[in-house]
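We store amino acids, C-alpha cells; thus:
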Amino acid sequence: MALYATAASVLAGVESRRGSIKGLVYASSFQNVKQLYALVCETQRYSAVLDAVIASAGLLRAEKKLRPHLAKVLVYELLLGKGFRGGGGRWKPLLDRHQARLKAELARLKVQRRVSRNEDLLQVGSRPGTASQVPRFVRVNTLKTSLDDAVDYFKRQGFSYQGRASRCFLLDPLLPELLVFPAQTDLHDHPLYRAGHLILQDKASCLPAALLAPPPGAHVIDACAAPGNKTSHLAALLKNQGKIFAFDLDAGRLASMATLLARAGVSCCELAEEDFLAVSPSDQRYRRVQYILLDPSCSGSGMPARQLEEPGAGTPSKARLQALAGFQQRALRHALTFPSLQRLVYSTCSLCQEENEDVVCDALQQNPGTFRLAPVLPSWPHRGLGTFPGAEHCLRASPETTLTGGFFVAVLERVEVPSSVPQAEAAPEPTPSAAPRSKRRRQAVAPGAQPRTQPRTQQKGKR
C-alpha cells in the first residue's frame, strides 16, 4: 500500500534530518495526511522497541529485499497498530510468514523488562504522561450541523452523555459547540468527521477564534492560516457572512487547507499563498478589516506531538528562539498598522516567554496608548507570566493546568475607535526567519471564494 511506503519514506527523511515529520508528511503526495502523520508518529515513538523485535526475529535477514524503515512501519502495524488497513496489499502475506516469531519476540521483550503493556516498553522520555490524559476535544461545525444534532447522533451510537463509561462525552463548560471525549478516543474514521460536521481541535486551539469573536458580516484577516482549523472556526462564527482573508506561504499546506475548508462548508474565505508582511495595510481590499488572528510560526514547545517528532523541540535553542521571536514581533507590529483594526488575537503553541509575553510587550511599547491587552476569561486558571504590567490578562494553557495542549493567547484591542470607522462598527465584547524573497503568488480558493491575481512576496511559512 502507498500508505506504508510513504510512511517509510517519511521516517527515512526524519532520521536523515531532511525535515520534520509534519513537514515531510505535508510534502508527500499521500492524500490522507492525518492517517499518515499518526502512523509515522506512533512508529517513531516505538522505534527502539521495533528495532529490538525486528533484530531478535531476524526479519531483515530472512527478507533481504525488505528495507529497514518499511519493516519498522509494517511491524508496528502488525503488533502495535490497528492491523493492516485496506487488506495490507502484498505486505500482509510477507509479514504473516513471520507473525508468530515477531509476536513471540515482543512477548519475550515484555518478560525481560517485567512489563505487561506495550506502552510500558517505552523509555521514560517517550511514555505517555500528563499530555496523554488530555481529553479528545471535538468542535461541532455549525456550518454543517447543530450541537443538538451532533449530541443526538453520538447518543444513538451508544455513547453515554455526561457518563463515566469509556464511551462517554460531555459538553465543555466554557466554549460552546465543543464536545469532550476521553483521552485517546479516535474519531478520524467517524462519518461525521469525514463529512466535515466535526473538527478535531484542541480546546486551547479553539480559544483564538472564540476570543476574537468576529460578528457575522465582519471582515477578518487570518495572517498565518494553515492548516486551517482556526480559519474554519472563524467562518463558523461569521456564519459564512462577511470575508476572511487567509494567508500562508507553504503551498502544500495551503492546498490541504483548501480541502479542509471545502469539507467544512466554508464559503467566505479567500486563500492566498502570500507573505503577510508584504500585505499593504492601505490596500482598499482590507479597509473594512477590523479583526486579525495572528498565529505565527513558533517553536511548538507546547505541542506533545512536536516534541515527539522533533527531539529537543521542548527546549529550543536560544538562537532559534531569537529568530522566531524576531519574525513574530515583525508580524505583530505589522498587523497593528491596519487602520480599521479593532481587535487582534495573538497566539502560539509555545511555552517560551520569548515568543509570548516578550512579543506582546514589544508590540504594546511600539503602540503606546493605541492598543491595550483586553481582560478576557477571568476564570481561566493559567495566566501570563508577570513580566510586565497587565501580562496577567494573557492566557496560558498546558496539560498540567488546563488539561489541554500547551498554548498562549493574548487579545489586543484598540483603545479608541479611529475616526475613519463608524462607531456602530466597533468591536463587540467577546464570548467565552529569512529575509523575504520575491515570488509570484499562487492561490487556492475555497468554494465560493474569489480568486486574487495581484503579485506578492514570500516570507517564511508557519509551522
The longest strand covers residues 407-414. The two ends are 28 Å apart (CA to CA). DSSP finds 17 helices and 15 strands in the chain.
